[in-house]
Structures are given as structure tokens and as C-alpha cells.
Request: fold
Amino acid sequence: MTTGAADILVAGEGRVDLLDPAAAATGSAGALARTPLQLFWRRLRSDRLALIALGFVVLLVLVAVAAPLVVQIAGVPGPNVLDPNATNAFGAPLGPSAGHPFGVDQLGRDVFARVVYGARASLEVGLLGTALATLIGTVVGLLAGFHGGWVDTLLSRTIDVVLCFPVLLLGLGLGAACDVHGCAAGAIQPGVPTIIAIVALVNWTYIARIVRGQVLALRERDFVLAARSLGASNTRILTREILPNLLAPVIVYSSLLIPQNILLEAALSFLGVGVRPPTASWGQMLADATPIFTTAWWYMVFPGLALLFTVLAFNLLGDGLQDALNPRGQVTHT
Amino acid sequence: MIAYVVRRLLWGVALLFLVSALTFVLFDVLPSGEPARLRAGRTASPQAIAHVRQELGLDKPIYTQFYDYIKGIVLHFDLGYSFYSHASVSSLIADRLPATISLAAGAVVIWLLTGVAIGIVSAVRRRSWLDHAAMGGALVFISAPEFWLGLVALFLFAADIGKFPILPGAGSYTGLLADPGKWFGSLVLPWLVLAAGFAAIYARLLRGSLLEVLGEDHIRTARAKGLSERRVVLRHGVRGAIMPLITVLGLDIGTLLGGALLIEVVFDIPGVGRLNYDAITQSDFPIVQGTVLLAALFIVLANIVVDISYAYLDPRVRLR
Amino acid sequence: MLHKGARRRTAALSITALLALGLAACGSGGESSVHQKAGESPLGQKLYGKHRGGTLIVYDHEDFEHLDPGEAYGAEDYTVLYAVTRPLYSYPPNSATTLKPDVAAAPPIISNGGRTLTVHIRPHIYFSPPVNREVNSGDVAYAIDRGANPNVANPYFGSYFGDLVGAEAAKGGPIPGIETPNKYTIVFHLTKPSATLFYGALSLPLSSPVPPEFVKPLDAHSPTTYGTEYLVATGPYMLKSNSQGKFLGIGYQPGKSLTLVRNPNWNPHTDYRPAYLNQIDVNVGGESSVIGQQVLKSTDAVQNDSPAPSIVQQAYQHYPRQITFTPGSGTYYASLDNARGPFTNIDLRKAVWAELDRDAIVKARGGSLAAQPMTHFLYPGVAGFQAAGGAAGLRVDYNEHPEGDPTVAAKYMKLAGYPSGKYTGSKTLQVVGSNGEPEQAMAQVVNQALQNLGFKTHLSLLEQSAMYDKYCTVPAQEIDVCPNVGWARDFADPQTVLYLPFDGHAITPSGNSNYGQVNDPAINAAMEKATLTVGEPARADAWAKIDDMLVQDAVAAPEVYASDAQIEGSDVEGVDQLWNSGAWDYDFTSLK
Reply:
């Protein structure tokens, strides 16, 4: 849902504080001066819910990477194997059974295997798409905030224009237009690359705005002015003083974007412009389930739960990161 | 103040112009439906298609086409013609808008009431089991894909296919004027599903915002003065904490009025979002252009309203 | 004809085909049970003497495409058109072989060695309001003339009316080959002796009378507004319209609903249709499986297009009196690009034919009640089907095993130059299918077969109309495989099944129905000769031989013969159109 991003927009207005070196040194650690990073880890480690979420995410990544192995261990056929015996005489799929713990779909393909492989599509899009959006957004935000002047105006206005586009419609339109032969003279192929491009296109503006805000604030801080008075070049200031202080908010906000993008991929796949068949994708499985879920409930339940738990884990993780990096603000969950 | 409003409105118009131009270019450059071929028919010869292209003005350079398009909008409110549906784009949109507005309005009411209530209760009873449950539930509803929630809702409660058939199922939408009872019944499930995610977000948002506000000095003063806790929270706390919600509410309404696509698809509600989805899958470009413009219009309007109210409340903003 | 939602015409089913289905006769003889014997009315019930009155509710997943009789070319649209307009000749619902004179008073008089047809028009047929006057021969002449008008762009004008004298140069003006000596007589002059085929074509909607004084100004628009805003009826029903004859927004709301009401000027004495219903309300859109549920649980509703496979099972098991299967609804196959790419090699085409699991596709469509494996290109009920091999088809090794035969497939891969039995070339196949309910499953079975043979594929599943209009009917798009194409005949002649999809001369740069761009000179020559063959038995033989040639050339990969299902509510006494893939006939359906 796009409002998750609204969460970020509002939060961006001063919610997450920078990891202020001055404040950290005299912070809750008491007499011992700890580096900001150490403080961050300490807080994160004490947040049990976030740790569980982190564990789940790591597990999911492992499962996605080692999908063939997982499927083999579970003793089910691969995700694209059509099993004619798993559908009845009318072609209707049979439910969970010994050979197929999550049941099968209309073509007799094992749902468990497809759920496992579906993690790949969701994670690829969620992680790569967000990374790309973060990269673009950071560069743009840095340029806008640091340079100022007409560059800032131009970039900010561009961000305004992009933010006017309805997200899902834009994604749908691009996905549909790039079908079959791809777009940009074949540079963007249909399937996962298209969705990653769409995700990046839709998200970079949030990161850009936040980075720009932070850079603007940082530009006038004492330690930057001090470095400048010592004769440091712009590049040096950028890399030594500003970028390290951007790390925290960028990590937090992009981690909040990941679950949104996983849901975006699922929505686009559900609407038919997602990954190419026969590649498994949770959203697409839910689309396939729509006509038959009254009789084949398993096909709707398992991919849906997979999506729910994955997004939930990333949300919890994001919350935990946000709390760990925000010593003064309110904890978003107990 | 006036100057600020004027500036914002002008920029809003410019934004819409840019959005329109970008959409035009995007769908022209990218491979999409060839309206001339659609119009010319299945067995049309290349000459026939060329003839139709000429008649539709598709052989003119793109800026000329765009100029004609903008002229049509500004002078006649003419958003173009859809050859696939044999109707003008504006009439199709006008036909579908009431359903989208019905959907959005009901959902907004539900999620505001529930979100605010839950947020307040959670903040006041911080760290209690109620708080944990509410925030946990909120997180679950934020994390669940809304189309999946819709399918689950239909699976459980739809009159025609559900396990506990108590509410009308997908495709039962009728206009408010045609049959108010059926209109209401058909929207209950979509409203609930659509509101669920938003209510969760608003609850979390309000809780965080309220907790911050309740920690501030003027609250301590109010308590010291002997005001009842309820008064303190509702009168002084919420009033201060509600600002971020208003911002987000404006933006959300703006986005929803462009069409709650997923809900409209799952529940088969004939709204603008559904129109857009059908148009995209059928490569019916004039409709896509029109609906994107409409959605952008609502977003821009919402932004303007929010900005102006901020400027009204905070004079520093106007100077930006 | 192109396949769309519901399917096209069918014929009486042969007994062998029925037995091959292995069906226990649903012996209770309920009118909606499976077909009993060939030659009888498919529903085993009478067509006349039913109860008059009532409103039928119709659920239609797909929207209508063209309501102009000059433009419509699909089963969906035909269900409305054959209730609202009357062509010169038509098939009654229980036949797909014998034409009944409709606007015509009698079968045509064929003379001049098959180059001239003389048709007499029935008097006392009237147009609906606001035109109101009697139909005359000039109205039929104009109806056919406008087919050549680019603003109308009739899709079959060239194929079936192109032999009229002067048709080539026609652009909507009077065609020299159509003569109207008096107001009840119309004479057609052809450049070739193809009167038999022409007679069959007069059953298509193009021959329905159109009043020139009302429609000519509408045809001046591009596109014509006749059929999109205005329509004049000659049948028992008409689209609900205002006093000027405009139905848009009243009787038809695109994407939402369509309403048919009685035509006040319809003269029942001139028509063999009983027209029991008072009104027909069509609701467009909605999820196919939800529609199916609604129909099965209702008393007065039917579904216009084929129900989803899950509904087929449910209906067959729980509502057996409310479902009918119409065998011989057409074919589904996967076109292979014969003109470029890997499939110019005949051995690769044979390999795909052998590898494809046609039984899995049968299942995907709902099991053996709804489909049977396809073995050649004529289908059950079409003249020549038996001569071309019947259910088993031509006995070649790649055709023997509908469940898929990897051994034979490997043999042909080797013959094609891939000793490992798997494709090792660099080309990635572009496969474009439809995202409809059984279609996408069928496409994935085909895709799997291709991948089993070692091909790398790009599979795209699109909206059906986009699949056809943008990709599969446009040779320039260079699509290697279209797994969701199919064909059904236009009228009772085997030429209508084989010519447009497989003749090299029928290839067009857009709107191309020869999806695979099959262009074999020997086959082309045989087809040209067969088009001019006279007499039904001779034609059946000639086209059966062509069917054999198509199989030997492995021009495409066959999938299934469809037996489309139709469902109805409990109080509906539905009559389905054998000739139109079993679609419900509004002129004969009634309510109890």
C-alpha cells in the first residue's frame, strides 16, 4: 500500500534523529563512551521481536537461495513439474496429501515447491528493487541538498512530478507496455527486471527527499563548517562528514521500503504484469487461485501466508532498526 | 497568504501538464496498442490502417497530437475517445466515478474512527496487553496484502460462495440511487478490507504521535492544574498529535479517489480503478491517459489542500 | 472464425464420437443432460409449444465486441445478433448442416453454372422503430455493399463475398454484381462458380437487411455509429432504444449491461422463431467462477460464455440437469511459425506435436466431457471429419499418443539435427498466450512441452484480445508459438475450417488468421482446386484430403476438440445453438 510510504514521509520530518556523535558520547551509556555503532547493536540486540524477525529474514534468504535443495529434502517434485495424477478427472486440483503437503495447483504443480521458489521473486524484487531505488535516491538527494541552487530546484520539482503519478497504475502501465518484447530497445526484459525497474522508479523519490533533508541540515552543522574552514574539499566533506551520517537514516528508510516493495511485486503479479510464467511468484499464485479458491483453499492460503509472514518480518525488522537508531524518539513497538 | 495559495495552484496546474505530457510520451514511446489497427478492424489492409491513422491524426508529430489533446481538455473537457469501448473517455470516467467515491468515502469513515480510537487507547494504556494486541494486530494488517484479505473475506463471508454467507459477494455493486440497501450491503466487505490496512497505519501513527505529545511540558502543566486525565488526553493530547494524521489523510484520500484498484478488481466494483485496469490490459490508451490524469489531479489537489492548511497554521512555510 | 469466450458453430455429433466420450447416458433424459444421439435435437426436447413470458438474466464474463451485423464475427456477438437481426438464411438451433430460409422465402435458385444465385425475399417483414417500414431487396443489397466500406470493415467480406462481380473495387458503394430487379428479388452474380459456398455465407449476419436511408449517414462516420450507437432490428427482439433508435446508454452500457426487449414490429408469421421470452437482461463482467455459482443457484439465469472448469465439475456432480455439453464446438491448437525461426523445420514441428501432452490439455479444459484430444484439423460434425480419420486422425507416429510421446519426439529432434534429442540452438522462442482461465493452463502445458525439448522460451500471458490483435495476428511481431489459438467454422462447409487458417494466400499483415503463416505451395494449390469443387460429398472428400496434407506437414501442434459446456438456472428451459458452439438461443429459450 502506498500509505506505508506516507508513513515514511511523515516520519521523515524530524522523527529519526541522526546518530549524533556528540550526543552519543554522553548518552545512556553512562561513563563509558561507546561508538554510535556499538550503541546501535546494543539496542537492537535487546529488541527480541526484531531479532526474531531478523532470524526469519535470514532463514528466508537461505531458503530462497537453496530452493532446489529445500525442495529435494522435502521430497516434493520441482515447481514446474506437471503431475497428471494430482488432478482429478475434471482437471480440478487435489488438496494437501502425503506427496504434496501444500496441495497442487490446476496444472498439478506442487504448491510447497512453488511457495519456496516464489520467495526468490519476492526477495529479488524487494531487495534489489529497494537497493536500486536507494542508490538513485541517495545520489539525487545528495546532489540536491549539497549543491543547492538551481540543481536543487530542478531535482525537487522532478520529484514532485514523479510523486503525482498513481503508483499502481504506473506500474501496471509500464508492466503491460513492456510485455513480450521488453522496453528500451530490449534493455528491460519482461519479468523480474521490469518489476525491479518499476519498483526503483516508484520509490527513489522518498529516499531522495529524506537524503536531501538530512544533507541540508548537516551542511550547516559545526563539524562540517569546521572541516570546511580547515580547507577540506567538497568531495572530502561529502565522503568523510556527510555520507557516514546518512548511513543510519538511509538504512532505516530503505528497510521500511522493502516490505512495501514486496507487496508491490505481489500486487503487480496478481494483476498479471509480474514475473513471467512458469516462474513461481506468490502474487501470481494468488491470482491463479482466485477462480478456484472456493474449492481449492490451499492454493490461496499458503502463498498468502508466505507473503504475510515475510512482509511482517521485514516490517518488524524495520521497526527494530528504527528504534535502535533513534535514542530519543518513542519506541514504535514495545 | 494569498500569494502562497496562488503560487501553489499555478504549480499544481504545471504539475498536471507535466504528468499529462509524460504519460503521453511514455505510452507512445513504449510498445502499446495501436489504436488505428484496433479501429481499422481484423482484416484491414495496411492501406486501410494508414487511412485510419491519418483520420485519427496519429501520423502527426507527437507534440501536435499532444497539443490537440490538451486543447481538447481545456476547451471542451474532451478527454478523447475509446475505440475499444465505443464511448468517450470522459463519459466512461463520469460513469465510474460514483463507485470509487462510494468506496473511498465509506472506508475513510471506518478507518478514521477505528484508527483514532485504537491509537488513543493504545497510547493511554501503553505497554498493556491491550496495547500489545492492538499494535500486533495493526502490524499484521499492514503486512497482509490487501487483495489477499479481500479474497479471504469473500471466502468466509460472501453470500454466494462463502463459508458463512452473510454479506453480498463480488460483483453485487449497485448505484446508491438505484438501490440504497443493496448499495450499502455490497460495499460492507470492500470497506472493511480497504479500511483495515489504513486503520492499522493510522493507529500506529497516532499512538506514536500521541505518546510524544503527552510527554511534553504543556501536558504536565495541564495535569498539574488538576484537569481530568480524559480531558488532558483528548483535549490537549490528541489535538496536538492529530496533525501528522491530517497530512497523511489528505494524501490517502487523494490517492484513493484515483481508484482503489486492487479492491475494485477483487470485489468487481465498477470504479475508476477497474476502468484503468481493464483499459491497460486491453491497450486502450485514451482511457489510460484519462484515468492517469484524473488520479494525478486528485493527488495534486490533495497536496495543495494539505500544503495550504499547513501554511495557514505555520507561517514559516509560506516563505519557502 | 476466431475463438473467443463461447465458441462457434457445431454440427450434430456422430455416434462414434459420442461413444468415444465414454459417457453413461444421463438416461433420465432431462433436457439439460448430455447429448444423446446424432441427428436429434441436442436437448432431446421440442422447440415449440413452450411457456411464454418472463425475463431471462444472462451473465457474460466477456463484453460484446460488435453489435453491427456488418462487423460482428464471434459467438458472443452472435447470441445477440441472431435475436435482433435476421440474415437471408439461418440454422435453427438443432442443426448445423441444414439452412432454413429466414428473410429469404426459399432456398436460392442457382444458375449459370454456379455463378448466379437468385433469392426471393419474404414480404411483410418490418424494421423496428423508428424505421417501421417493410424490408425490401434494396436493404439486403445495401447490407452487403456496406461490408466493403472501410468505416464498417467487415472481416469476412473478402473471403466469402469477394467473388461478387465488382467486389474487389468496392468501397461501400453499390456492388455491380448485386442486382435488385424488384423489391422482393435479389440476384447475385459471381466471377467464379462458387455458388455453394456463397449460399452458406448468406447465413452470416452481413446479409441481414439494413435500411439505407437510416444507416447511410451513420456509415459516413469513421467508425460507423451503426452498431455502436444505433441499431435497427428485424428479429423478434431489439436493443432497448429511445425513439430515435439510439441504444447506447439505454439498451447497452459497454462493460456493464445489455437489454433486449421485444421488437413491436416483428411479424411472427414470417419467422420460424417462437420468441417466448419478454426480455433478456445481460450483465457483463465478473469472475467466471462466481458467475457460475450464481447461475447454478438461480432459477432464471444462464451464463453466456463457457463456464470455468471448476464450475463444470460442480454442475456435473450437483446440478446435472442444468448443464449441457455441445460436442464439436471447434478446435484449439498451438500455432507454430512456419515462415521463420526454428519451426521452418518440419521435423521440429513434428517433435512438438509428438511431445505435447494433449491429455493434460483436455484436463485443463475440464476433463473428457469438455474436450477430447485433437488429432487433425477438421473436427467432429464437420463434413469430411470421418474421411480424414475420425477421432484417431491420420495414423502417423507423432499423432499416435495424445498423452505425449517423448521417444517419438526425440526421434524427430534427431532428424532435425539435434543428436542429443534436445534443442541446442541459440534462439529463444517467443510464446504469447492468453491469461484466461483454462487458456493460461493450456499455454503452460505447451510451454512445458517446448522446454522438455530443450527450447528456451519467453512465455507472455496477455488479455485474449491483446494476444490476438497485437501479436498473434501480426506476422511482423515474429511470435514463434501462439498456444491459445483455435478455429471454428463460419458455416456448414469444410472450407470455412481449413482455408483461412492454413492457406498461404490468406496471410495478411494484420488481422491475419493464418497464425502460423503456413504457406506450402502443394497445399495452396489443393485448396484453390477444392474451393471450386461442387457438391457436398465431393467437397467433403477434397477437404478431407487437404486435412491429411496438413497433418503430414505438421503445420501446427493440435490440442483439443472442444465440447463447450453451457449452464442454466433451474427454471430455465434453455435451447442451445448447435451451430454456434451451444450458445443459448434467446429466440427459443423459455422459462417454466
User: Anything to note?
Assistant: The two ends of chain A are 24 Å apart (CA to CA). Chain A touches chain C at residues 80, 82, 84, 87-92, 106-108, 179-181, 190, 272, 276-278, 288, 290-292, 294-296 (CB under 8 Å). Chain A has 13 helices and no strands. Chain A has a mean pLDDT of 81.
